[in-house]
Amino acid sequence: MRALLSNRNFLLLLVGQTVSSLGTWVNFVGLNLYVYDLFGSGTVLGAFLTARMLPAIFFGPIGGMLSDRYPPRLVMIVCDALRTILVLGFVTTRSLWQFFILGVALSAIDKIFLAASGAFVPSIVPREGLLEANAASRMSHSIVSMIGPAVGGLLVSACSYRWVFILDALTFVVSVGSLCLMIVPDEATTPRSVMAPWEGIVVVASFFRCRRALAYLVVVRMIDALGSGAYNTAMPVFSRSLVPGVSAVYGWLVGAWALGEFVGAWATRRVSRLCPGESTLFAVAVTLMACAMAGMFHCQTASTALVLVFLSGIGDGLSNVLFNTTLMNESPAELRGRVFGSTIAMLYTTVAIGMALSGAFLDRISLRLTTDIASAFIVIGVAVGYALMSKRPRTEGGSCG
Questions:
Q1: 172 and which of 12, 84, 110, 237 could share a cystine (Cβ 3.0–4.6 Å)?
Q2: What 3 state SS string does 335-358 have?
Q3: pLDDT winner (highest mean) among 83-97, 306-320, 341-355
Q4: More confident residue, 152 or 11
């Protein structure tokens, strides 16, 4: 960690992303409340949230393609500059269709930025420091996800929605400044992809096919995302039944999960020394997350629910750090953006599917049965995938070289 703290470029990136993430969480609360207050419709709010998830399907891969063709830092700077302008658009608009256009455009650029960021980190952090770098990023994300919603709520109550958007825009300016202050001398000489979009799809598919251990992580992550969609849908409903009349319970559960994620990210390097193989630890972490979440939805008291959601967060923090680190280590520089972009598209799509399916299930069967099915789906997927991956060693050489 000491070497990481002396890495000027990574510290600038971490500061910029932490500040901009804080603004994004503040905006998330403020914008959703603003849409509901302005248009007075839960249907409109639901459609707005759904529309903002759709860009991940297309713009994750587009972001990966751009990051392979141009320096990822340049792509990130342009994204933050555009996000500054788009966020300020919410200050003046009152039209429903303009809200949808701004929201979808902002979400699309978010996904391009994520793909570029995943491609950029290995160029400023040595291979042996990637685990700690991803852990630090995840810890930062966990802290911000605990603080941001509260700040957003306070800002709306004390000031106005206008200041929510102005603050978010300023955080993107800080991120642009941090990126511009970096010194990355080999950016211009890094090999850039000249493949057409359809060629990139074929190459990425071949890349995963030839790396079975990595493909296992991606598939399990998608199964995890599908189940997590169910958890995201069920948790607000569960919190209402856990302590009737106390809306803050939902916030407590989210906060406990974020705290657990922070602990899991912090402990990743220490735990990885005790567990042989990253794939094994990843399987254990995802299983811990699913089992703890399943238990939480059966709790009768808030205290036990908070403990279990905290344990679930630990598993999620561990699996996130391990997954991102493995993806960065395994992806060649000239293909890294496309790999991250494709992965972002797959994960966000499966989360959306999980939310849609669980919503339909919640209307027909009990909440606990819905979440039990989601948890069982994750655990079985992890076990079957791990068994298949262990029997088939990763192919080397030939067309997979």
A1: 84
A2: CHHHHHHHHHHHHHHHHHHHHHHH
A3: 306-320
A4: 11
Say how many CA atoms lie within 13 Å of 132 toward its Cβ. Answer: 15
Return the amino acid letter for 323.
F
What 3-state class would DSSP assign to 251? helix
Spatial neighbors of 273 by CB under 8 A, at least 6 apart, are: none
Residue 256 CA to residue 258 CA, distance in Å, equals 5
Q: Is the Cβ–Cβ distance between 11 and 5 less than 8 Å?
A: yes
Q: What is the token pair recorded at 302?
A: 């808030």
159-186 as b/e, with b when 16 or more CB fall inside 10 Å? eebeebbbbbbbbbbbbbebbeebeeee
194-394 CATH, one of 3.40.190.10, 3.30.70.20, 3.40.920.10, 1.20.1250.20: 1.20.1250.20
Read off the pTM: 0.80
Kindly report, residue by residue over 214-259, the tens digit of the pLDDT.
788 888 888 888 888 888 778 877 877 776 655 567 777 888 888 9
Contact 367, 240 (CB under 8 A): no
d(CA 227, CA 358): 9
User: 274 Cβ partners below 8 Å, 6+ apart?
Assistant: none
In contact, 103 and 55? CB cutoff 8 Å: no
For the stretch 243-255, pLDDT in tens is: 665 556 777 788 8
pLDDT attached to residue 219: 86
**In the predicted model, what is the mean pLDDT of residues 144-165?**
79
More confident residue, 317 or 56: 317
The CATH 1.20.1250.20 domain(s) of the chain lie at 1-192, 194-394
Q: What's the average model confidence in pLDDT over 160-189? A: 85
CA dist 208 and 331 (Å) reads 10
The CATH number assigned to the domain with range 1-192 reads: 1.20.1250.20
